[in-house]
Amino acid sequence: MSEMGDTEDVEQYSYLIRTRPGRDEYVVVIIRKYYEELLIDVEKGSQGGKDGLIITAVTEIPIEAIERIGEVETVDQLPAGTQ
After folding, report:
1. What pairing do the DSSP bridges indicate for beta strands 13-19 and 39-47?
2. 9, 37, 47, 73: which has the fewest C-beta neighbours closer than 10 Å?
């Protein structure tokens, strides 16, 4: 995903999303559909030994909203400054 201008001065919120096996791409499509304007980055990654999707946004996205995507198993908000 292309980066928005200079994001160093923008507060960032990151989430680790674990999906059902093989459903990462579907979840990425849905997240981009509803939150494209808020997103800085969407990538596959890991945090604390847990693999999944890491999304970074310019504002908080309610965890409950992400969890409502049918193929999402768990969502964790990552501490500020991690990605």
Report:
1. unpaired
2. 9
Q: pTM value?
A: 0.80
Sign for the CA dihedral angle at 79, 74, 61, 23 comes to: positive
pLDDT digits (tens, 9 = 90+) for 4-30: 445 556 789 999 999 999 999 999 999
The per-residue pLDDT for 2 is: 44
Q: How many CA atoms lie within 13 A of 66 on its CB side?
A: 27
CB neighbour list of residue 21: distance below 8 Å, 6 or more residues apart: none
